[in-house]
Amino acid sequence: MATTSISVAETPLVLYALRRADDALILGHRLSEWIGRAPMLEEEMALANIGLDLIGQARALYAFAAEQEKAGHGEDHYAYLRDAPQYRNLLMAELPNGDFAHTIARQFLYAAFADPYWRAMMGCAEPTLAAIAAKAEKEIAYHLRHAADWLVRLGDGTDESQRRAQDAVDALWPYTGEMFEADESERMLIAEGRAVDPAAIRPAWEATVARVLAEATLTQPGGPWMQSGGRSGRHTEHLGHLLAEFQHLQRTYPGATW
Amino acid sequence: MTEATPTIPIWEVFIRSRNGLAHRHVGSLHAADAAMALQAARDIYTRRGEGLSIWVVPSAAIVASDPADRAMLFEPTADKIYRHPTFYEVPEEVGHM
Amino acid sequence: MYTQALNARETAPAQPEDADKLARFQARVDAEERIEPNDWMPAAYRRTLIRQISQHAHSEIVGMLPEGNWITRAPTLRRKAALLAKVQDEGGHGLYLYAAAETLGVSREELVDALLAGKAKYSSIFNYPTLTWADIGAIGWLVDGAAIMNQIPLCRCSYGPYARAMVRVCKEESFHQRQGYEIMLTLCRGTAEQKAMAQDALNRWWWPCLMMFGPPDGQSQHGDQSTAWKIKRFSNDELRQKFVDATVPQAHYLGLTLPDPALRFDEASGHWEYGAIDWDEFRQVLAGNGPCNRERLAARRKAHADGAWVREAALAHAAKRRAREAKQAA
Fold it and tell me: A128 in contact with B at a CB cutoff of 8 Å?
């Protein structure tokens, strides 16, 4: 007998928090899959650190969502008892890790957005979110540096590493547009100063991306078509598999304490 | 693995802790260049809030005294006790000096 | 300092060594002085340390695999973060230990190559599978518990870099065992299914953990010289007995039974007497026939092979950078 999923009352702040929490959780989970597989020991440590930072951010954001929702839910309800259509993360986060270039490129593209985004959120009108942002910003700044430095080394390394890095950036590019979306629910928060308009982050993101790709001797992909849907629960085929593994124990042993 | 494969160099890591004044040697790691070495040092050796400052130095750059010279280098200091304050007597009435 | 250039490699290990030098070395060890990387040391001392430290390092790295198996399925976010941090620590421990071994004139690459070629040993315990979440609890409680028994005395071993690495490891290890025991406690206080899960894990991990301490003292190859050189501070049986004495009451507190019908408390000695260990199983596992030996090595080989292009890229970039800087300086 499995446990049924919870229902979430997605008022604007709850929805906002779940979106960012899910980003962090799914990305952190993907990074944790590198344990035992990294190219060298030093990178095992680095990827685990990034994963732990992101899981920590997710937990803080779920706690905020729980506070706002007031439905007696906790971080584990959100993480373990929502099915894929209820998840609100960016599609980019749930994509399989691929090779090291793919993982690094994804981390870079995400962090290049998240760093200025959280920095801007430090000044938002919602005190808890501002505090979460202050902590997250320091962590993401490091993720950005680490991923950017690696992308440069891969892009400007060997022929093989350059090919892999370019393939990764090309494959991920169509998933970057989603980071700048803001729907009606979020627009309300933005108008109230409780959230930052992600579109406003675009210039900073573009500048960072252009600079690092150039240094990495990589070509910036073109093409306007962007994948979308994660923010409203329309995901790729990958999320279902990820959650099946992730949620297995809680679903199989309903109500148990772990 | 062939002999010709270049290996990733070793770096020695020194950390200055929150309350400490000097960088202490904490261990070593492998990294291809200085930027990566600094980041690796941060990820490996400061996970429990141990540090405020990191130095990384290529192992090959370190010059160490030869243990065989230990006697010659360090024992002659033992009998120069006049370098220590306790060698000198100052009457108590004078106060702390 | 650990100047690689001064760490002389063993060129003629077969030559008899100066009896005088050997005596002075032994005197230093007897006086609890630390031996440091560039000090004179008997060739056999260097060889033994390289073997012991590298086996220890390999164990940490291979040990990441059975526990890493459950990170993606950890049942709460708190457990997930704790397990990820624990496994990360183990990677770090491997790293500190390879670094300590490298001070003896061997490279991490050589040591890893030996492991991947199946020529190097690592602790037998990591050749067992993690079948349930309770295994994660059992590993933290029992395997880390056994490791701590072994590691604390090593903090005072005669070789400086190894001793210092052990101090760091022990500091970090203290949460590992508590994490595991807390998992077991939660399971034992949980549903009937969870308690059964915990009992099943204990049943499967108990004997392999006792085997971790190595063969009985009479049979161990390396004992006497290692003890004289203060590389090994307690015998296998001594440590094994300490472990049993500490752990049996912990199991009883959980309400679990140990899978040893011969287990009984001896009032006279104050020790828990335990039944016969199946040393055949131990030998088979060491010989490569344990449940997971092939998978563990295959996983490490794959990770290493998959990462080759990354390591090459890092080196290539560093070389390009140096060339550019040289050009600019010219």
Answer: no
Side chain identity at B10, as an amino acid letter?
A: I
Structure tokens at B55: 């130095």
**Residues C306, A52: C-beta atoms closer than 8 Å:** no
Q: Which amino acid is at B21?
A: L
Please give the Cα distance from A196 to A187 (Å, whole number).
9
Long-range contacts of B36-39 (CB under 8 A, 24+ apart): B36/A42, B36/A149, B36/A153, B36/C314, B37/B11, B39/A46, B39/A145, B39/A146, B39/A149
Q: Give me the count of residues in chain C.
A: 330
Q: Would you call A160 and C312 a contact, using CB atoms and an 8 Å cutoff? A: yes
Residues 6+ apart with CB under 8 A from C276: C262
What's the pLDDT band for C233 if we cut at 50, 70, 90? Answer: confident
pLDDT score at A2: 54
Sequence-ordered list of residues with C-beta below 8 angstroms from that of A223, at least 6 positions apart, any chain: A173, A174
Q: How far apart are CA A217 and CA A102, in angstroms?
A: 16
The amino acid present at C66, given as its one-letter code, is P
Residues of chain C in contact with residue B3, where contact means CB-CB under 8 angstroms, are: none
Question: For residues B56 and C183, what is the distance between their CA atoms, to the nearest angstrom?
Answer: 39
- Asked if C126 and C62 touch (Cβ cutoff 8 Å), the reply is yes
pLDDT tens by residue, C184-228: 999 999 999 999 999 999 999 999 999 999 999 887 666 688 889
- Among A61-70, B75-84, C249-258, the range scoring the smallest mean pLDDT is B75-84
Q: What number is the ipTM of this complex? A: 0.97
Average pLDDT score over residue span B60-76:
82
Structure tokens at A209: 């991306």
- The answer to whether the CB of C41 falls within 8 A of the CB of C35 is yes
DSSP B27: E
Q: Specify which residues B13 forms β-bridges with.
A: B27, B56
- The per-residue pLDDT for range C235-294, each reduced to its tens digit, is 999 999 999 999 999 999 999 999 999 999 999 999 999 999 999 999 999 888 999 999
Q: What is the CA radius of gyration of chain C?
A: 22
3-class DSSP assignment, residue B24: strand
CA distance B24 to B15: 5
Q: How far apart are CA B53 and CA B38, in angstroms?
A: 10
Q: Under a CB-based contact definition with an 8 Å cutoff, are residues C145 and C246 in contact?
A: yes
What pLDDT sits at residue C5? 29
- Rounded to the nearest 10°, the torsion over CA A226, A232, A236, A237 is -170
Phi-psi region of C14 (alpha: psi -120 to 50; beta: other; left: phi over 0): alpha
**Residue C106: its chain B contacts at CB < 8 A?**
none
How confident is the model over A114-160, as pLDDT tens digits?
Answer: 999 999 999 999 999 999 999 999 999 999 999 999 999 999 999 99
- Which residues touch A230 (CB under 8 Å, ≥6 apart)? A87, A88, A89, A90, A91, A93, A94, A178
- Residue A127, judged by CB atoms within 10 A of its CB (0-12, 13-18, 19+), counts as exposed
Give one DSSP letter per residue of C180-222, joined into a string: HHHHHHHHHTS-HHHHHHHHHHHHHHHHHHHHTT-S-GGG-SS
Nearest to C167 by CA among C158, C178, C156, C180: C156
**Residues 87-106 in C contacting A (C-alpha not used; CB under 8 Å):** 87-88, 91-92, 94-95, 98
What type of residue is C116?
Answer: L
User: C310 and A39 in contact (C-beta within 8 Å)?
Assistant: yes
Order of strands, sheet of B24-30, starting from the edge strand that comes earlier in the sequence: B24-30, B10-16, B53-58
Interface partners of chain B (CB pairs < 8 Å, 3 or more) are A, C
Mean pLDDT of chain C: 92
Burial C112-122 (b: 16+ CB within 10 A, else e): beebbeeebeb
